[in-house]
Amino acid sequence: MIKILHLSDIHMGSGFSHGRINPITGLNTRLEDFVNTLTQCIDKAIAESVDLVIFGGDAFPDATPPPYVQQAFASQFRRLVDAEIPTVLLVGNHDQHSQGQGGASLCIYRTLGVPGFIVGDSIDTHRIETRSGPVQVITLPWLTRSTLLTRPETEGLAIAEVNELLTSRLDPVLEGEVRRLDPEVPTVLLAHLMADHANLGAERFLAVGKGFTIPLSMLTRPCFDYVALGHVHRHQNLNKSNDPPVVYPGSIERVDFSEEKEDKGYVMLELERGRANWEFCPLAVRTFRTIEVDLSQAADPQAALLKAIGKKEIKEAVVRLIYKLRSEQLDLIDNGVVHQSLSDAHSYTIRPELVSQLARPRLPELGVGSSMNPIDALKTYLDNREDLKDITAQMLEAAQRLLAGNDNNKLDLEPPQAVGVGSIKDKPQLGDNIDSQLRLL
Ligand SMILES: [Mn+2]
């Protein structure tokens, strides 16, 4: 029985906007969070004296992380070297350098010849002799268009066709690796990819280019005892019958608010030929909390806002407060008090949204079926905008000039632009709020 720790999507060095500078260390607290979480994983690998650690890719947000971030990552993984635990580092899409000959941030571990470390930057099969016997790991790093295809082949093809072509290319390559396998030895496929049926998380927005989707049927083969995936940040097993398990452990920390409700963790598994017992192990990670409240109908918006904040546990959490209100209510919000009420949070952002622009009831005079000349239409609109009363005359005048001046030479763009934004700019509170969205202590 071979004991393996499978983790993925570390993304160390991302999400700094959710943190603040720790005055003692000078580091962003979110870097410290990611380091703490990775430390928990490595602690576990050592405490359980696992036979192998496999990392599913995406170590950093990009291929050129700053030295102090690389160092934070390396100082955790080197503990595995000291503990003589073999480790496979797979290259994800965020680890690949897109310029020139490419290369990946993780290749430095091979260049330095770190004992027991394997870098998976190509499709290859690695036989690893562990304390509990041999294990085979096929590495399948993130595939780009240029990995298996040439430019002339893909020219003029739609993305779906390119995807199909890539799949048809990958199939024999993977088959070649499968045929090299020793059928007696337990086998892991370690891949950084988007499998179809995977539920998406933040990686959808983080991806640099549009990626490829690999059919699940390509992964669920009896020659694999466990399919270890990386890329999707939400933990999931894509093959409920577990023959073999096809598992995304997910990211180890919340990379952004789209992961607010997800459990974060890693996977521990015991492997033998034909069987894998696996378990998701949750990590203690920082809480993300969204507080969303519509104040537009509240008689006392300030009280309603404070009540909404009071209902949520925000201590040491990364908080985002989103509230909707009407422009006439802006003066009723005391920003100092709102900031004070969020002071227990680790960090917070405040986003007021003016509801008047979002959901004003349609004017029947301007509805379908009625026709009006543009000036009358504008008049009708302005008659219904109490807040634009001061500039109504100017707007009408500017509109008349625009309509009259068919030849562009006569167009004087200055006045209409100036009046269009006036009403919001005049309210200082909203601007203050946006400027001080993030508290940096
Ligand atoms: Mn990825």
Structure description:
It is a single chain. The chain has 441 residues and is α/β, with parallel strands linked by helices. It folds into 3 domains: 2-282, Purple Acid Phosphatase, chain A, domain 2 (4-Layer Sandwich), CATH 3.60.21; 288-354, no CATH class; 364-438, no CATH class. 31% of the residues lie in helices and 21% in strands. The strands form 4 sheets. The protein has a 6-stranded mixed beta sheet with strand order 4-3-2-1-13-14, with helices on one face. Strands 5-6-7-10-12-11 form a 6-stranded mixed beta sheet, with no helix packed on it. Strands 15-16-17 form a 3-stranded parallel beta sheet. A hairpin with an 8-residue loop joins strand 11 (236-237) and strand 12. Mean pLDDT is 86; it is low at 205-209 and 407-441. The structure holds manganese (II) ion. Manganese (II) ion (MN) binds at residues 57-58, 92-94, 192, 203, 231. The site of manganese (II) ion (MN) has 8 residues, from loops.
What is the element layout, followed by pairings?
Layout: E1 2-7, H1 29-47, E2 52-55, H2 67-82, E3 87-90, H3 108-111, E4 117-120, E5 124-130, E6 133-140, H4 145-148, H5 151-154, H6 159-179, E7 187-192, E8 194-195, H7 203-206, E9 213-214, E10 226-230, E11 236-237, E12 246-248, E13 265-272, E14 275-282, E15 288-294, H8 301-310, E16 318-325, H9 335-341, E17 347-354, H10 355-358, H11 374-383, H12 392-404, H13 414-420, H14 422-425, H15 428-435
Helix pairs in contact: 1-2, 11-12, 12-13
Bound molecules: manganese (II) ion.
Manganese (II) ion (MN) binds at residues 57-58, 92-94, 192, 203, 231.
